[in-house]
Specification:
11 helices; about 40% helix; Epimerase_deHydtase; SDR family NAD(P)-dependent oxidoreductase; NAD(P)-bd_dom_sf
């Protein structure tokens, strides 16, 4: 039996779908208040759903009965300042619980981290798995939560855990809808006027799921892998999306002082509305930073060829 945590989320649902389609027996965890993802509507009878928050060690232990493989996709993502510390505690505690139980029961794990937990390279160099985030200089709550969660997995490996870690770049795909990375497409579709100088990596959600499955079945242990199809500047990305929507591409460069005003305005709007800010200080600064990633390690490990980002962009735009 295979357990997928976070299967109601964007990536977790895609992992569950891939496993079911290949004929594997799977169990998926969800919170009692979670909605079933539309992506899995056609597979309801083939999935054993259990209510188990990963911060509840007792419920998690029950969910792991008879399980020999775990895909850990569960994570809380929030830009709200008030939720920073609770998010860190939740993500780290949940991962620690899962690690402890997998060590105890000799269960193999593929853990989803993020490139947010990977450090920076020197100017002009690609970021690789050997780079590590400096927690003493990091203020992004999500990055800290992913780094500390990843450290729990490394701690487990030192105690005998059979595991591998994946660090995806920005995951895109049709099933994201208007949430998460889907907000990028929705923002451009509504007529984005500005672009930033930054760059980052992008990867199709299906490719991330395929890499995770291949790593699980490879027997590789004690390694981390950046999962990235291509590096794109935000200007390139926005221009291509706008082209598929047949609208003008963003033509004005958003300078750092403009981004400063933007995140402050978003913070004020969030206070007034009570909703999460559409832009926070960390994201505003990151939008102007060049972060390009090396994907050679994963390609060599499982002989994988990534789907071109342009194909995924086209599919997303045509689905709207």
């Amino acid at each position: 039996m295979i357990l997928v945590t976070g299967a109601t989320g964007f990536l977790g649902a895609e992992v569950a779908k891939l496993l079911v389609e290949t004929g594997l027996n799977i169990r998926c965890t969800k919170r009692s208040t979670s909605n079933f993802p539309a992506l899995l509507n056609n597979y309801a009878s083939q999935i054993d759903w259990v209510d188990a928050d990963i911060t509840d060690a007792f419920a998690l232990e029950d969910a792991l009965q008879g399980v020999d493989q775990v895909y850990n996709c569960a994570a809380w993502v929030s830009l709200k300042t008030a939720e920073k510390e609770p998010m860190i505690r939740t993500n780290v505690t949940g991962t620690a619980n899962l690690v402890d139980l997998c060590v105890k029961n000799h269960i193999r794990m593929v853990h989803v981290s993020s490139v947010a937990a990977v450090g920076e390279a020197k100017p002009g160099e690609l970021i690789t798995e050997s780079h590590h985030l400096d927690p003493t200089t990091e203020n992004d709550g999500y990055a800290i939560s992913k780094l500390e969660s990843e450290m729990e997995v490394w701690r487990g490996m030192a105690e005998g855990l059979d595991a591998v870690i994946v660090n995806p770049t920005i995951i895109i795909g049709r099933s994201a809808g208007t949430d998460g990375s889907g907000q990028i497409f929705e923002t451009v579709r509504k007529g984005l006027k500005f672009y930033t100088r930054g760059s980052i990596g992008f990867v199709d959600v299906v490719d991330v799921a395929k890499c995770m499955k291949a790593l699980m079945e490879s027997g590789i242990s004690g390694e981390r892998y950046i999962i990235n199809a291509e590096n794109r500047t935000y200007h390139q990305l926005f221009t291509e999306i706008a082209g598929y929507f047949n609208i003008p591409a963003p033509a004005k460069l958003a300078k750092p002082w403009m981004m400063e005003l933007a995140w402050r305005g978003a913070a004020l709007a969030a206070v007034i509305t009570g909703k999460a800010p559409v832009l926070d200080k960390t994201s505003a600064k990151a939008a102007s930073v060049t972060r390009n990633f090396d994907n050679s390690k994963i390609k060599k490990a499982i002989n994988f060829q990534f789907k071109p980002v342009s194909e995924t962009i086209r599919e997303i735009c045509f689905s709207k």
